[in-house]
Design goal:
By secondary structure, the chain is of the alpha+beta class. Among the domains are: 2-149, Jelly Rolls, CATH 2.60.120; 164-253, Immunoglobulins (Immunoglobulin-like), CATH 2.60.40; 658-731, no CATH class. It has 14 helices and 44 strands. The chain has an 8-stranded parallel sheet with strand order 33-32-31-30-29-28-27-34, with helices on one face. It has a 6-stranded antiparallel sheet with strand order 3-2-5-10-7-8, with no helix packed on it. Helix 3 (320-329) links the parallel strand 28 and strand 29 (332-336). Helix 11 packs across helix 12. The N and C termini lie far apart (57 Å). Residues 263-550 form the Glycoside hydrolase family 2 catalytic domain. InterPro entries: Beta-gal/glucu_dom_sf (IPR036156), Galactose-bd-like_sf (IPR008979), GH (IPR017853), GH2_Domain-Containing (IPR051913), Glyco_hydro_2 (IPR006101), Glyco_hydro_2_cat (IPR006103), Ig-like_fold (IPR013783), Ig-like_GH2 (IPR006102). One of its GO terms (molecular function) is hydrolase activity, hydrolyzing O-glycosyl compounds. This is Beta-galactosidase.
Length: 738
Amino acid sequence: MNKISFNEGWLFEKLEDKPLELIDGNEIVSFKENVNLPHTFYKKDEYYRGLARYSKKLMVDSKWRHLFLDILAADQHALVFADDVKIMEHKGGYSRFRCEIPASLYKDKKEVDLKIYVTNKLDSEISPLTGDFTVFGGLNRGVNILYTENESYFDPTYYGTDGVIVRTSTDGKSGQVDLEIHAKTEIGDTFLAELKDSSGENVAIAFSNNETSLSLKIDNPKLWNAKGEANLYTVETSILRADKEIDKLVIRTGFRKIGIDANKGLFLNDKAFRIKGVSKHQDVGDKYSAVSDDDIKRDFDLIDEIGANSIRLSHYQHSSYTYDCADERGYLVWAEIPMLKMTDNKNLLDNAKEQLKELILQNIHHPSIYCWGIQNEIGMFNDKDFMYEDLLKSRKLVKDLDSSRLVTAANLYTVKFKSKLNQTTDMIGYNVYFGWYYGKMHDYDRFLDKFHAECPQLPIGVSEYGVDANVSLHSSNPVVKDYSEEYQALYHENVYRIFETKPYLWGSYVWNMFDFSSAIRKEAGLEKINAKGLVSFNRDIKKDAFYYYKAKWSEEKFLHICQKRFEKRAEEYIDIKVYTNLDSAYLILNDKEISSANNNGNGTIIFEKIRLENKESFIKVVSGNYVDSAKFIKVEKEEKSYRLEDNEAGTSVKNWFIEDDLIKEGYYSIKDCVGDLIDNGETKDILNNYIPDILNMITTNEDFPRGLALQSVINRAKPKNLDINKFNGELNRIKAEY
């Protein structure tokens, strides 16, 4: 199969919105623009969710026997026309799909008029239905032309794959590659498969005359062992006719074993492997989702620097190049579909399985992927039996396609430990935000131990945790919801230290490695940005918390003075905090050595009560050959720009933290989810007495997320004159029915 990049010189047009089934290829144009792909029609000041069209003429070569359009992603519902003939429809914004252009449309012609209609309008039958991220719209990964000059070829239309599905297995002593071949062939054609190691040496070979499956076996394979040894092999599969090569496909893969234990965590190649992970979305700065391979490479460079060993690629299928990078650089990958809200709409459930099948078949050959995620936080909206039953079907689909990997899911923290939503996967992650949206940082300790005690057979980890930080905001006494860089750093110092004490955890994923676009947000003094990243949206600023994890995870020796952007100080004395993986360091103030200090074992050195000079204080921290410097300016009054006006910093903890003796085991409380409290007649009456307006808002809105904790709902609504302790005490009288 031959490939031609087809990304230059497209005409982009916004169209009057209408259902795609009414599209005929000749719609009236309201907006025109010349664009190159990849392209998204999202703009920060204009969140367009509607219909658009991309069009371009394809010059045809008379030698072409079969012709395909290779669309790497169309966000999120697409129709493809060739000379006004509909040739393909695709539902799902993140997977690759291919369609053949019938020869009858281009035979004896010099060109074909191609049109791709794309809509990102909310559709009740296409996931995602919701999410704290932007559904950008567009052809944001580009388009290729595929063609063959022969009648025999590997079929690129089979679920967007290249026509050969590669599965590997190993017991450590031997390795096997099983090939599932989808091809168009003629009588007399044969298949040849060759396995080559990283040096290009042929280590196994297999032939087939008419079977569409082949197996290759080797002894003592070099295992893909994450960052230790990311060994890769190449599978070359050919269609031969009379020993002449008609078509050829090259796919990289690797051998490795994955296992998991509820008490000991994850295992890679029979050795314990603690996940030290970060999560990431696909978007970058003002390019949004229309990123280049260079943008993705830069993201991996930053993840390399921090020293993580795993990436959760949230919350949908990412580009092929992203998985290639993970293979090459040795990252274990959590790959998932965008099932973030599950309804009983059969078409929605079928679409999720179609997206799951595309995700797996297109990426099954990547050794970096260790688990397939089938849902994220669907419990936010409900916890019903139909959800459990459908997830079991998704689990079966995964196991039928790929028995070598784990099935996983991420649940909202309000999902009860013994919920059926925790009984559908091999492992589970919980998205937990104590110390930010609810509770206090140390609540992680009790929460995780309680889960493990109640569900000792279920491997658990933390799939999301983090806080928003605007790098323009600072505080000497950081508190929850001040959005300061200092609170984010303090949070991660305290929370990750708790995770390290739990040997039963398979690990954790920081939410998020990078700030990302979320069109629904206006928070932290920022618009349409989720600022929980350790690195800014444009990748130009590494927040202090980035260096905390670098100190914990990276082998690269370094020093980093924190709070450099918190330059103007009204205090006479300040503490100088340093993140480092070095044992000790000394501090120089205005060329005078002041003190030395040791690493506290949590990646941190603190120099206490350093007196600032009247004007400028120049700080150097030194350890052997490693040096970092900063400048602080003494001012008379606190710098107002470091704080948000009218910000309710600290109120989350003040309002919501209920002492443990007020939370009665086995009884309801404000920490219960809205759905449970409304379903119980007694607790619903209590809600009606204390928060009638909020209750009415919930019950009259079918789309309200009933899986949220009541405390989170009240925190957002901010009812006046509510005695939270008295209200909670009333709920404590009612015995829980779950």
